[in-house]
Design goal:
The protein is of the alpha+beta class and about 200 residues long. The chain is built from six helices and six strands.
Length: about 200
């Protein structure tokens, strides 16, 4: 999850993953609230190239508005970093990218590095290489046997736990009834009463 979703949550062990997920702070809009009034300022831009933008128009004094907003954005990132570093009750694991920066990516956990210099590094073992000996049996007979085994295991794991049926589907047709069919409160009369009650409007 991202840091916004992690607010209010905690765990014994927390991993700060994706060490290159940060972005360069930028100001796209500035809202000035004075009393009951609020005014918004924003530049009008269009995409340029793969990652760039071209400014078509901007409000007068936008440079000062942009600097004010950037100060707010930077402070908000510091607050989010505090949220990230305080979610762990026992152990906090901070990931680190040792390669070069990729494009506009920025290291979001970099402000924590001076405090982690004395912390032990976790050695990540190499990914095990699965070794498969021989060629798999893909003959029609082997595939049919595997399908039968798969269906049998699926049937064992998914037994029906309920069934919806109609009362009439459980009743015998009159032509198949024996002459000594039970009548009265224990037989056909009881069923007739139930049908009558069910079909009578309340």
């Amino acid at each position: 999850m991202n840091l916004h979703k992690a607010k209010g949550l905690e765990g014994k062990v927390v991993f700060l993953a994706d060490p290159m997920a940060g972005v360069t702070p930028r100001a796209d809009i500035r809202i000035v609230r004075e009393g009951a009034a609020a005014r918004g300022y924003f530049p009008i831009t269009k995409p340029k190239g793969e990652h760039g933008v071209e400014t078509l128009a901007e409000p007068a004094g936008w440079a000062s508005f942009e600097q004010e907003e950037l100060r707010f954005v930077t402070a908000e990132e510091a607050r989010l970093l505090y949220v990230a570093a305080t979610r762990a009750r026992e152990t906090l694991v901070v990931s680190e990218w040792l390669g070069t920066a990729r494009g506009r990516a920025r290291r979001p956990w970099a402000p924590l590095q001076p405090f982690l210099a004395a912390c032990p590094a976790i050695v990540v073992p190499p990914w095990p290489v699965e070794r498969f000996g021989g060629q798999p049996d893909l003959s029609p007979a082997a595939r049919a046997e595997a399908a039968e085994d798969r269906n049998a295991r699926y049937a064992r794991l998914t037994p029906p736990n309920f069934q919806t049926i109609a009362i009439s589907s459980r009743a015998e047709h009159s032509g198949n009834r024996d002459d000594d069919e039970v009548a009265g409160a224990a037989g056909r009369d009881w069923g007739s009463l139930l049908h009558l009650l069910w079909s009578t409007p309340s």
